[in-house]
Backbone:
């Protein structure tokens, strides 16, 4: 059987450290040995080259055997029970007895492979005692500290006591993953790193990802020789993902970085907060140093304790900020200002508007007007920023402490206001808070611009860690979460104030329009009075003289003149009819009579009585059913019924006797023609000449006529009058017709109640 190692020899030939495949080095550190067991066959498919030195069994002996064949059924049972009881995510080590030696093993799964990493047991380590001591200390830490920094200082000291490292640092990341030594405990004879900053390139993205997956990393000797992992040579490109392995070999670039710092051994514990790498507990030793799995577990608890307290401590630190901003917010929202444009000027000069998010300046852009207070740019710059922020944030919110990163071509503006907090108020309105540039001196552990060095051999970490000072420009103080919350809450309240202001503008606009309409209606009423009264007198004179001429002896006028006078008299009569109908139409609009319950049966009887002669002359037959009681005006409803019957008589078919049916629908129901409300549905149908369906709506327009004056008399106002009467009663009317068959007019009167009922 042939064997091969899976060492990734491309690691040292990289041109970009951010692409370094550090999770598949194909080798391990030498302070333990590793075996990989295939999930399906249960055979050992991977083994580190140093297994013989620890358990007396070489990799070429172990590869291809089952775990039970290699290490005995008792150990196989122990491992099986461990996986079933603790699962593969457990950090608790499992003890195995192999060839008369005790080993502490870490067990996890990588793809289809179970990985067991074995390290010799240290019989002097007492895990339970360490855990008890830490629990007591944790309670003490909580009681004796109030800030996160104080807590981290105690944890750094406690971790150093547990592990014995020369230096223990609590390393905190900013939002760009630049690191800061936030707390530190170290030997008195070495230079402290407290307060130093390190660029994000020191820990590239793939390394941060591994820190998220594997919470503890150990290097016992920086100058170690990697131990290759072997497998059976039965496949190409056979890799083993060691992302969460304890023994995983370290990146050559990282090893060189630590060597340049003079470090001999390290321990790193991840600090995860809200799904993000918040920081690290970084332990450095200046010579070789190994920790037993029990001690490492005890140290890891320190990191979990810090993580559990980050929210609590940050909340305590933010509480005072939140308390003050909320006081300002309450004062602002308590303003009882009228919905006028001057109110926004009052708001803008209020000192509470600055205190609500601890800003140095603020500006309001309302309906194109700019109001500002404190440190604020020019009006033109404010409009520019509002437009830019609106587009960038999709008319929402935007904040930054480094505006120059977004509008680098406006450096003079960004130097004046380096931080902004923008909130859209809709319709081009906005509020923006401002903060000035805060010059900050940052102490770096070496020049951050030279974190990675490139030469003919590839990439290398920097070899200088001397103090390097940098002055940070174009940056304001960070916007804290309580400040952002208070600003957002007030922006929401301000949006309501703007809404009230816009409503008041609309109300004023409608009030003016109403006044203009009232004046126009008055003018139209005067015109109507003239047309219906002042024009009556000349018409009566025309009719009088025409009548005199027509009743005289016909010999007085020639026949042609007699016909002309006759046509003049007819035109005057039509004109008088039109003026009377217009007067009726306008009376509906301005009628002030109160509504009352009206029995439509009584209305119909009165109409039929008044029209008895006309109906008799037409030889018409009128059929009706019992009609309901509706709420309305008596004389208008009488006019309605009369116009509809007259319309049927006027447009009767000369070849058959007119038949008019007035019927009530059997049920009251909601009707889409009357705002979907419960209605009485009454139809007036006839067998007259009818009309084309295309005119079913236009037939109600005033002065609309479908036939010429010579054929049918009328002003074209009658049906418009009917529609107006129905609207006045909260109902509606629709028309249906078929040429030469007849017409149907349907009235929808609102019911007095909302419940449907059978009539």
Residues:
């Amino acid at each position: 059987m042939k064997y091969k190692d899976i060492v990734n020899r491309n690691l040292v030939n990289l041109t970009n450290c951010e692409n370094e495949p550090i999770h598949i080095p194909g080798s391990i550190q030498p302070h333990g040995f590793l075996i990989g067991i295939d999930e399906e066959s249960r055979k050992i498919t991977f083994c580190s080259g140093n297994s013989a030195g620890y358990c007396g069994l070489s990799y070429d002996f172990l590869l291809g055997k089952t775990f039970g064949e290699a290490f005995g059924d008792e150990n196989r049972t122990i491992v099986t029970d461990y996986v079933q009881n603790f699962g593969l995510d457990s950090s608790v080590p499992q003890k195995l007895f192999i060839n008369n030696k005790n080993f502490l093993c870490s067990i996890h799964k990588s793809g289809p492979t179970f990985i067991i990493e074995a390290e010799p047991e240290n019989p002097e380590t007492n895990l339970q005692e360490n855990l008890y001591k830490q629990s007591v200390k944790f309670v003490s830490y909580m009681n004796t500290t109030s800030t996160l920094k104080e807590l981290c200082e105690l944890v750094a000291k406690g971790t150093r006591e547990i592990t014995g490292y020369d230096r223990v640092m609590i390393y905190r990341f900013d939002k760009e993953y630049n690191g800061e030594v936030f707390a530190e405990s170290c030997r008195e004879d070495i230079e402290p790193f407290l307060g130093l900053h390190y660029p994000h390139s020191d820990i590239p993205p793939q390394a941060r990802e591994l820190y998220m997956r594997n919470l503890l990393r150990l290097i016992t000797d920086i100058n170690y020789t990697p131990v290759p992992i072997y497998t059976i040579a039965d496949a190409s490109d056979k890799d083993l993902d060691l992302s969460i392995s304890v023994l995983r070999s370290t990146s050559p670039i990282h090893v060189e970085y630590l060597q340049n710092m003079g470090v001999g051994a390290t321990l790193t514990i991840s600090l995860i907060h809200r799904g993000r790498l918040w920081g690290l507990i970084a332990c450095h030793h200046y010579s070789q140093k190994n920790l037993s799995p029990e001690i490492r577990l005890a140290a890891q608890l320190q990191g979990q304790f810090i993580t559990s307290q980050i929210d609590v401590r940050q909340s305590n630190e933010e509480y005072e900020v939140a308390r003050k901003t909320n006081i300002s917010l309450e004062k602002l929202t308590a303003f009882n200002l009228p919905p006028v444009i001057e109110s926004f000027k009052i708001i803008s000069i209020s000192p509470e508007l600055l205190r609500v998010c601890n800003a140095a300046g603020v500006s309001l852009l309302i309906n194109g007007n700019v109001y500002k207070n404190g440190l604020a740019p020019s009006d033109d710059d404010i409009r520019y920023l509002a437009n830019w922020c609106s587009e960038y944030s999709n008319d929402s919110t935007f904040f930054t402490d480094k505006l120059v990163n977004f509008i680098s071509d406006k450096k003079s503006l960004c130097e004046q206001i380096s931080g902004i907090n923008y909130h859209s108020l809709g319709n081009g309105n906005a509020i923006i808070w401002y903060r000035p540039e805060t010059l900050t001196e940052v102490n770096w552990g070496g020049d951050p611009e030279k974190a990675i060095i490139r030469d003919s051999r590839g990439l290398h970490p920097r070899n200088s860690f001397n103090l390097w000072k940098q002055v940070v420009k174009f940056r304001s103080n960070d916007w804290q979460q309580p400040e952002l919350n208070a600003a957002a809450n007030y922006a929401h309240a301000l949006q309501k104030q703007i809404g009230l202001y816009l409503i008041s503008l609309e109300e004023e606009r409608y009030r003016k329009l109403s006044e203009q309409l009232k004046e126009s209606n008055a003018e139209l009423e005067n015109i109507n009075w003239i047309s219906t009264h002042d024009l009556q007198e000349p018409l009566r004179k025309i009719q009088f003289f025409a009548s005199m001429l027509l009743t005289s002896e016909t010999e007085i006028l020639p026949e042609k003149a007699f016909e002309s006078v006759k046509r003049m008299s007819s035109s005057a009569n039509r004109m008088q009819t039109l003026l009377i109908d217009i007067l009726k139409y306008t009376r509906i609009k301005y009628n002030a009579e109160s509504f009352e319950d009206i029995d439509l049966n009584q209305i119909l009887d009165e109409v039929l009585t008044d029209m008895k002669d006309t109906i008799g002359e037409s030889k018409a037959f009128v059929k009706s059913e019992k009609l309901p009681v509706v709420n309305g005006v008596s004389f208008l409803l009488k006019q309605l019924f009369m116009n509809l019957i007259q319309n049927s008589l006027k447009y009767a078919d000369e070849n058959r006797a007119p038949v008019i049916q007035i019927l009530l629908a059997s049920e009251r129901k909601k009707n889409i023609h009357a705002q979907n409300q419960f209605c009485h549905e009454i139809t007036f149908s006839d067998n007259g000449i009818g009309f084309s369906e295309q005119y079913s709506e236009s037939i109600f327009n005033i002065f609309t006529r479908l036939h010429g004056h010579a054929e049918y008399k009328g002003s074209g106002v009658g049906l418009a009058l009917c529609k107006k009467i129905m609207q006045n009663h909260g109902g509606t009317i629709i028309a249906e017709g078929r040429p030469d068959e007849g017409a149907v007019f349907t009235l929808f009167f609102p019911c007095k109640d909302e419940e449907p009922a059978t009539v």
